[in-house]
Design brief:
This protein is α+β, with helices and mostly antiparallel strands. The protein has 52 helices and 33 strands. Strands 1-2-30-29-28 form a five-stranded antiparallel beta sheet. Strands 19, 20, 21, 22 and 23 form a five-stranded antiparallel beta sheet that branches.
Amino acid sequence: MSESPDARSLLSASSQLNLMEVDAIDDKEFDIPQVDTPPTLESILNELEDEEEPFVLEDTCVLNTDNMDAHSCDTSSLASSDSGDPAHLKRKRRTVDLNATVHGSVLRHSLLKGISAQIVSAADKVDAGLPTAITVSGVIAVGTSHGLALVFDTNQALRLCLGTKATGAEFGAVSALSINHDCSRLLCGFAKGQITMWDLANGKLLRTINDAHPPGTAILHVKFTDDPTLAVCNDSGGSVFELAFRRVMGMRSCDSRCLFSGSKGEVCCIEPLHAPPDFRDHPITHYSLLAMASLTKILVIGLKPSLKVWMTFPYSKSDPSSVPQLAWQFVPVQKTVNPILAFCKGDTVHFLLVKKEETGTIHVIKQRQLHLSCDIISLSWINSRTLVLVDSHEKLQVVDRPSQEVLETLDLEQVQLVYNSRHFKSLATGGNVSQALALVGEKACYQSVSSYAGQIVYLGTKSAHIMTLRNWRERIDCLLKQEHFVEALSLAWSFHEGTAKAVVGLFGDPVKRKGVVGDKMVEVIFQFAEHALKKCPEHGKIQVMEQHFHDVVPVLVDYCLLLQRADLLFNQLYARLGENMVAKGVFLESLESYIVADRLGHLTTPIMRDLLAHYHGNGMMDSLERCIVHLDVTSLDIQQVVKVCWENQLYDAMIYVFNRGMNDYITPMEKLFAVIGPPLREGRGLTDEEVVMGNKLLVYISCCLAGRAYPLGDIPEDLVVQVKHQVFEFLIRLHSADSSEEEEVFPYIRTLLHFDTREFLNVLAMTFEDFKNDKQALEYQQRIVDILLQIHHLGHLHDKTVAESSLSWKEMTHEVMVDNPDFTPSQVGGLFTFLARQLAKPDNTLFVNRKLFDQVLEFLCCPDDDSRHTERQQVLLELLQVGGVVQFNEGRLLALAEKAKFYQICEFLYEKKHLYDRIIECYLRDPLRKVEIFSYIHNLLSMPGYSPEEKQAVKDKALQHMQELVTLDPSKSADLVVFHFAEEVQQIQSELQDDQLLFQFLSCLLEPREGHHPGILLLQEHDLHELLLDLMCRFAPQQLLSFLQTSQHYRLEEAIQITEKYHHNEATAYLLEKKGDVQGAFAVLLETLKDKLSLLTAESDRVEGGDGRRDEEEGGDEATLTGVKDSLNEIIVLCHRSSQNLYQQQREVLWFPLLETMMASQKLVKGLDAKHTFEVLKELTMKVLNCMSTFISLPSIIQRILQDPVYGKGKLAEIQGLILGMLDTFNYEQTLLETTTSLLNHDLHWSLAHLRAAVTRGLHPRQDYCNICLQQYKRRQDSAEEIIVFSCGHLYHFQCLQQKDCGWGFASEQQQRWSCYKCSSSQGGRAGPSAEPNRGRSTSLAQLPYSDDTSDVAEDDLLYIALNQKKPATRVTSVHHDVGAEADRKKVFVEATLDLQQEQSWDQLRCLYRGPSRLSILSELSHCHSSEKTGLLITAQPGTENFQLKLAPPPLLEE
């Protein structure tokens, strides 16, 4: 074979390169550089060419492409690529998002140049044909369209050319290839169905198999199993065969066994389970598993020890043209390694875990599926966690199975994939395949993709390509080559943390791996820094340079800190960046976020010095302060920092440095007091900055006294008590350090009280909470209290020092003067409330003179001072609510409170004395709380805990002030009366003198309420409702009708008298109609209408008389017309309501006066030449005519019009409009009636004609034997037997059916109701006689055309198939003729009935599909009037209307 001329010529041709003609190359276009001396041919041949670089087989027989970098197609992940657009300069400072996933370029895509060149050369030089199939194992084999198989070694050198063009002409193209696991045998399948086996060691042909499968079908797949004597093949008929190779006595043979027949569903993909070398002994391999994918499902079968189907799995719905795919892979799951089968058809990949149980059975477990938005045409595993897919647009996707994340997308368009469509359509054998298989074959490329040991080879029309996973270093270097440094660092960090996907080349324990990756990251960080400095724009705006470094430096800092390499950051990196002043500034600014987040606590001295200088020089004082309070003090130059802080008012930083650096907690307070003290002493307002300082001071004091450090952390435990005492000593100092003679005593406490009394006292209160066993602290507490009292009463000692005063502490305390003008009542009250609360504590040790509280009371209750009234009252209330410590003389306090109008204080005291009735007066007098009185009274009278006497006193007081309460809020007063004062309603009514007020009160009182209340029955008295009605007639007539309609508690006669007294005609008419006096109601409304018509006539007269006033009167005219329309509508509605219950004569008494009134007014207005008014009245008269024509016959109306004296003297033209309008109405109704009758007749005719056609049509029996006795319907030649044929096609002898007793009851001997015995039995037992034959519905309700082709059955036909269990029968009498001709059959159509269950189903369906109204049916009928009738009309149920469409049933069409 190897010596054949074809092979020799191919080998010689393969050594030549198929170069383009030199003349066609343009130097300029291709940018070819000039060379001094052109190279010789010898030197070129001796040079090791790129494409000749070998790719060596490693131990695991993996094709190694590491050496092929020179011509690798570098591809970057779509997710990681950067546009490189200069617009990124506008971006703000970049921060590192550790959650952002960067995968980089995961696959290395390499062109197999040697193989590709030789494929093209073979096609050109020796006519080997185009490539059709490829497979890879230890070697690569490529099949061609002229029947040759080219075998290449790992150096891409052609080793063998198997086959000849002569055999190619006989067998057709190579359509499938397979190499066994030890690379000793090659199987070739051909387009005309033959299979050949070759020895790869010497290129000998070992077998030619012609009879393994049916002739005339192409081989789609041929695959070796792990057993070298066993292979499987799949042909274009959709069948699968097992090939068992035997060698007996030197004779080679092949036994074929059919595993799956294409007649049961065509298989188009097969995949045996191949175990890698490490798993050859896996228990699952003993079963020799084979996966097969048909067009509808997949099957997993075991070939050993005997053929067995282990699992079938149907596909979900997918496109019929989608290609099924199968791929096995051994995957570690829960510490064991088992095979997983990945399969797909369309866009969803399913995974099945196959494992062997201890019992020996194979268990298949469905795993989580993977959904992609593309149509997959190729599916391969590249390792146990990663899949490589190709979609119908030739886009390759790398997918991580555990996370279901797409890692990379590549375009394979340049590959120009080979498709196997010709073999799937079996064009070489005449194209005898199914349409479904041919459709799938359009996108089939099974033989163009081959995966082996972590590498995937793709076959193009002129080239071969190989895909492998890049190792981790290569993936980082790819990004560096594209200058995507940030993405490279992000990817490297994911390798460092173990979160990266598809990782190759990282081995060892996690610590070692982190070390290796960390070293690489340091290298990348330095490259990034160098690149940034080199690429920095030397000229241009400073902002552009800053933005350039803002995109770089924070990333460098972040990764240095993540790697815990601060030494690298502060030494080498800072030194390198420091060469550029902009980079240095950005570096120092970027440190802030890490310092504040406590990721960076210690800076080196040079950097701290530069940081201070930079922030100070750029005015970034807030940032500097934030940094200082988070840094370790030991790294600070304290002298320099304190100086900068003082100069720039960085008080937080200053406090932090003093506290942490020098353990000095007092100096910061002195400095802060120096800021806010002078303006407070001088009485000036504080600026916003000074207010912030004051609040900062209060928080600082609070932190020091509570043992917390300011602004963060805690004071060291050994210093807590010492700091607390130091702060107290500072606060109670008599004078400040640099005091002047004018300074007041206790300046610090005085300043804090003036700044914010309440907050300062809150700080003290919180501090005092912690004083339990600290004797020293308790002394400070008493001292502070004494000082507070002194400050508040030493207003007269401003000009003396305490040293000159001979008063002792206690004497000072007793000489209280609370009228110190420096303090507001709120501040004084706040102090005493604070003192009272401290004294009220159970473990109190403070001493305060009680007389002080009396003086405070008089001060707060001073009636002469109107200023701060609410504030003083609130302060006193707080003081009283503290508890029983403060004992006031209640009588004196009450007198003072009433004098000062402190009503809340009065309430507090009355509450203590249980004088609840007096509290009502407090509420009424207090303008701020008046509205709360209702809820107070209600709660007090409703809640338990109050004596009957107290409640009665409150009720009496409330009744006394009821007029005032109703004036305040009538609605809430009414609610109060309903719940608590129902029996006193008459008394309240008599006390309310103002009628308007009484009306508002009664309206609220008598409005409907939900629920049951004790006062509801009392409020149903007629007198109250009639009184309200009377008041409503006077004050709110527009509410009359709604009140009369909703209320049920008035007497009709009295109500009529009231409404008549105030001339409210609409209300009177409503009441008269309610009484039953329709005529009276009509008369009242008619009178109203006449008044409005006369007003309209008068206005028209005025308008005609005075032309100058015409415009002014038009508005009034329109309003009057609207009033006329409203009145007329009310009368028409009344007449409509009443006419249904009246006789003809009574109806005429109502309608004719109305008509006459309208016609008379129309006549009057016509004479006045008011055209618009006349037209409106004419329309209204026609409206009356149309409405009355429903109840009164047209002749009566015409006669009445003609007899009317109004028209007696006039001409016919005057009533022409009325007459013509009535005639139009008549014509319309006549046309409607005729159309309806015509449609019904047409429908009836159509139904009867089709019914007749169906009944007279012959029946075709399906069998010529009886379905009961199973004998021929002509049992004896000489006897005439009656047979019965049903519409289902089943045939019975009359006698057999009678014996089976299948009758449903007999109407007569001639007409018996039968049901098909066979159909009745198959649907749940034979039917018995109908229980209610009279109620039985005819099957004609659901008899519909029946067709052989179910796709043509209409929706209504399906209804028939579902419901019509009982089929109408046709009785046929057979008579024997001498000539043996066909029997003479006569047919009788017999109705069958529905049983009870069927009736219920039919009713339910009819309700579901209940049709539209009769008008819509008629309009629909009129549309399809002339067209052919095609469906069943289901009539609507029109309710009480007497309307029926008696349509004939649809036709019954038999087979």
